[in-house]
Design brief:
It holds the Pfam family Cupin_2. This is Cupin type-2 domain-containing protein. The radius of gyration is 14 Å and the shape is globular. The chain is mainly β. The longest helix is centred in the N-terminal third of the chain and has 5 residues. It has one domain: Jelly Rolls (Sandwich). The strands form two sheets. Strands 1, 3, 4, 6, 7, 8, 9, 10, 11 and 12 form a ten-stranded antiparallel β-sheet that branches.
Length: 129
C-alpha cells in the first residue's frame, strides 16, 4: 500500500523535465510509479506540451490549475481548463499542454507502458493560437 499525503499534493516539489519528450519548460512532481501505474503532477509553462504519445492501458488527466489543450491524432485540439478530467483510452496517440497565455498543472495517472513519438508540429497546433 502507498499513501500519497495531502502535503505531497498541496505543496509539490517540482523538478525540471529532462526526458526530451516535451516542448517548452515542463516540471514534474512524482507521486508514485511502478510497473503498472504512474501518478505525477505536471506543470506546463505557457505553450509547453508533450510530444505525441500513447499509453498501453490508458491515461487519466485531471486539470488542476490553468488551461490548455488535448488532442488525439487526426482530431482537432480541444481546450481544457481547471476542474476538467480527460480519459485517453488505451492505444490512442495524443498530446496535451498549456495555452499561450496560461501555465497549466495536471495530474496524470498513466496505466501500463508508454510509447513516445514525434514532437507536435505547427500544423498539429492549428486552432490553439
Amino acid at each position: 500500500m502507498t499513501i500519497i499525503t495531502a502535503a505531497q499534493s498541496r505543496e509539490p516539489s517540482f523538478t525540471k523535465e529532462t526526458l526530451g519528450t516535451f516542448s517548452g519548460d515542463v516540471y514534474f512532481n512524482h507521486l508514485h510509479k511502478d510497473e503498472h501505474i504512474s501518478i505525477l503532477d505536471v506543470k506546463f509553462s505557457p505553450c509547453a506540451r508533450t510530444h505525441w504519445h500513447g499509453h498501453e492501458k490508458g491515461q487519466l488527466l485531471e486539470i488542476i490549475t490553468g488551461s490548455g489543450w488535448v488532442c488525439d491524432r487526426g482530431q482537432e485540439p480541444r481546450r481544457v481548463k481547471a476542474g476538467d478530467t480527460v480519459w485517453c483510452p488505451p492505444g490512442t496517440v495524443h498530446w496535451h499542454g498549456a495555452d499561450e497565455g496560461s501555465s497549466m498543472i495536471h495530474r496524470a495517472i498513466s496505466f501500463g507502458g508508454m510509447d513516445w513519438q514525434d514532437p507536435v508540429s505547427e500544423t498539429d497546433l492549428k486552432g490553439t493560437h
